[in-house]
Each structure stands twice: as C-alpha cells, then as structure tokens.
Amino acid sequence: MNLPNKLTMLRILLIPIIIVVYVLRNYIGDLTFTIMGIIFIVASITDYFDGKIARSRKIVTTFGKFMDPLADKLLVLGSLMMLADYYSINQNGTLFMWLPFWIVFIILARELIVTSIRLVAVGEGRILHASILGKYKTAFTMVTIIYYFFLMPLDILTLNIVGVVLISISLILTIGSGFDYLVKNKDIILESI
What we know:
Blueprint: H1 3-23, H2 25-28, H3 32-56, H4 62-85, E1 87-89, E2 95-97, H5 101-123, H6 132-151, H7 157-184, H8 186-192
Antiparallel strand pairs: 1-2
Helix pairs in contact: 1-3, 1-4, 3-4, 3-6, 4-5, 4-6, 5-7, 6-7
C-alpha cells in the first residue's frame, strides 16, 4: 500500500476515535471538543497530503480515487452528526442546539446523490472527479466543523452567531455544488434511465 493510501486509511481510523471521545464526553468533560477538534484537524491534514503526494509522485490508484472521497464524507458527516446530536445549556440556562439535524440531512442527501452518480459513471467505465466548487464546499465545511469544535463550547453569543453564519455558508455551498454536479453530469443520469 502506497503512502497516500495509508494516509487515507489513517483518516478512516481516526473517525471512530472521534466518536469514542464524543461518547465519553461526560467523563472527559470540558476538553471533549478540543480533543475532537485536534483529531479532526489531523484527519483533515491527511486529506490534504494524500492527494498532494499521490499527484506529485504520480501514484494515483483506483483505491485512492474511491476511498479518499469516502473517507472525507465519513469524517465530515460523522462530525456533523455528533454536532447535531449535541445540546448544551447556555449561560441563560436555556437549552441550546448547536446544529439543526435538517442541515446534516441536506448535506447527507447531497453526498448520497453525488456518490450515486459516481457509481453509475463507474459502471460505465468513467471516473468523475470532484469539481472545484465541491472542493471549496469540503474545505469550507471542514473549517466550519473546526470552528464548532473549538469556539462553540465557549458559549459566547457573538461566536454562536458566527457559527450559524459559517454553517449557513457551508449549506449554500453544499446545495450549489450538488446542483452544479447534477447539471454537469446530466448525460450520465439521462443515459441510466
């Protein structure tokens, strides 16, 4: 197994560790989201380097083409699901939900649609690469998740409002990149009907 694929596998292995930290949040306490954020950053860095190394060394593999985007989706969606699951009591004593579930649902739906189109294309012997808008969406969503891990636990109104703005932009990029993907690959969809 080459180095880029090892980095992809490392990213996949870090996902259950983030989940375990979240599940043990009552025992870990205040450091829970900081630990999750650090693990998420390490995983995100592997995403950057596996692609860069694979392209520079010209060792792009079918395994990497399939597993790299899958690892990204598992990392991002898993983190978003945990953030949507989390409620906290803010300084006013009211229950505060960090991330509405419907945002995660829309992001998940977009990923399933795009992945389905890719699978149909693979069945026809074609490999579809991520668009530049899709890459921006992924990068911005990762930055948003890091913001949520490190700054939302501070429970400061201004920081919470910034978090809502960031996740809203992520959602807009998700919908826009999904629509862009559908339009650019409509021939694959129409041929498969």
